[in-house]
Design goal:
Blueprint (H helix, E strand, L loop, with lengths): L3 H17 L2 H5 L12 H8 L33 E5 L5 H10 L4 E6 L2 H14 L4 E5 L12 E7 L8 H11 E15 L4 H4 L2 H5 L8 H10 L3 E11 L3 H4 L5 H8 L4 E10 L15 E5 L5 H10 L14 E6 L2 E11 L2 E9 L8 H14 L5 E6 L3 H6 L3 E2 L7 H4 L2 H6 L5 E6 L7 H10 L8
Parallel strand pairs: 1-2, 1-4, 2-3, 4-5, 11-12
Antiparallel strand pairs: 5-7, 6-7, 8-9, 9-10, 10-11, 12-14, 13-14
């Protein structure tokens, strides 16, 4: 546990064990781990999301090891070359293949031989000649420079000791203007020492996770732009898992500490540069709540990017602003109507559009209005629908827009008929007590699955 290599061996051993379990064994337990149900596998079952509704889904390749649906958000186009990091039995690779089509190519990379054997057997059975699986360490990918249009990965980077190396490798193998969509586990706050030191929880993706801000900072340091959180979901660890590593008093302290374990799906782009170099310009961006005194500056910014200002509330409630050297360079606001909100006035000065300001404003603002009880955000756009799709927004018909939004001045008077209407749920998922009881009953001694 004291060296990077020993941590990798822990992961290799645990995932070899999971790969060698039969499908019947996995199905026999609500934890997805059969009679070996102990700790890390319990957690794997809790984190996993449902792939079954995605095109290209192959049940035999789904071992329930993910923590998100990165391929769903990856904006894969026909003909793309896609690389799946930590490809396992091939789940995301086969979903990606459905998007890139027979004219594209999918490369899966994994360092666990048992997983590679499963993936290759699945690909052969499906007759896919444009999907291949390579053995290798994702810190040193067996891939040439500038090969991939898109990179995906599902709950893998948290298992890698040196995450900066992985992001540098992703940058190397992506084509200029290529992008990635990665689901992973990150932290807000410090884990109790019992969790940090547990090898099982490392293989279960918890103690290998780092702080969310540090994680996003590594992406930025690697040279990526337009860094966007496409999904942000808090993970709940039942006491049945925590009790393996923590005392009752430590569990109680953990529950009230404010520490959070999150599944995020993050998108970022490799910028286009003629020499392939990383951007070196750095600016300090200050983001703060708007004040009524900022009104004239916000109006000037919105007019400069041809956004409407007629209905702008002079008090600027629920607005966030971005400043560089005390100069206003970005703004975003939400009109709150009960449990729904209208995202409006997302604007960034042209000279600062490569600094991810819009994404930061929208992400922070979404969290702010969620605390006010907002569950869904709507927006109206004529030019930025592609950008907001990458942030997890979905197109909706005008008839489906809630009355509170449809009656707003921006929607009813200022919104042209050609505009695209989009929606995103920002409500934190609720955990049913019955679900927790089921997990607790399954994953306790003498339950028949442990």
């Amino acid at each position: 546990m004291n060296t990077e290599q020993s941590l990798k061996e822990i992961v290799r051993e645990k995932y070899t064990e999971v790969a060698n379990q039969s499908k019947d064994q996995n199905a026999a337990s609500c934890c997805g781990c059969g009679p070996t149900c102990g700790t890390d596998e319990d957690f794997i079952g809790i984190m996993a999301e449902d792939y079954s509704k995605l095109g290209g889904y192959v049940a035999d390749a789904d071992l329930g090891l993910g923590c998100g649906l990165p391929t769903k958000f990856a904006q894969i186009k026909p003909g793309d070359t896609v690389i799946d990091l930590g490809s396992g039995a091939g789940n995301d690779a086969f979903v990606a293949r459905a998007e890139t089509g027979p004219e594209g190519k999918v490369i899966g990379i994994d360092f666990t031989e048992a997983m590679l054997a499963k993936a290759r057997a699945n690909a052969e059975k499906l007759g896919f000649n444009n999907v291949e699986f390579r053995q290798g360490d994702i810190e040193q990918m067996p891939v040439n420079d500038a090969v991939a249009d898109v990179i995906v990965s599902n709950c893998v980077l948290n298992l890698v000791p040196n995450k900066a190396n992985v992001f540098n490798e992703i940058y190397r193998v992506l084509k200029p203007n290529g992008h990635f969509s990665i689901s992973d586990i990150v932290l807000v706050g410090q884990l109790p020492s019992g969790l940090q030191q547990a090898a099982e929880m490392y293989a279960g993706c918890v103690s290998g996770a780092i702080q969310k801000e540090s994680y996003l900072g590594l992406i930025e340091q690697a040279g990526f732009t337009n860094i966007t959180l496409q999904k942000d979901r808090e993970i709940f660890l039942p006491d049945s898992i925590l009790s393996t590593f923590l005392s009752a008093e430590e569990i109680a302290s953990f529950r009230t500490s404010g520490t959070g374990i999150y599944s995020i799906t993050v998108y970022a782009e490799k910028p286009t540069a003629s020499d392939g170099s990383k951007p070196s310009d750095a600016v300090e961006i200050e983001i703060r709540l708007a004040q009524p005194a900022d009104y004239e500056s916000v109006v000037a910014l919105l007019k400069s990017v041809e956004l409407p200002t007629e209905d702008l509330n002079a008090k600027l409630p629920d607005f966030l602003l971005a400043f560089v050297n005390e100069k206003l360079v970005g703004s975003a606001g939400v009109e709150v109507n009960g449990t729904v909100g209208l995202l409006r006035s997302v604007a960034v000065q042209e000279d600062f559009r490569n600094y991810k300001i819009a994404g930061r404003l929208v992400n922070d603002l979404s969290k702010q209005v969620r605390l006010k009880g907002v569950k869904e955000l709507y927006l109206i756009t004529t030019t930025a629908d592609g950008y907001f799709e990458k942030q997890g927004y979905e197109r909706v018909e005008r008839a489906a827009v809630p009355t509170e939004i449809a009656q707003s001045q921006q929607f009813s008077s200022l919104c042209p008929s050609s505009a695209v209407i989009m929606k995103k749920s920002i409500e934190k998922p609720k955990i049913k007590l019955s679900d927790l009881e089921q997990v607790s009953a399954c994953c306790t001694p003498n339950s028949g699955c442990c």
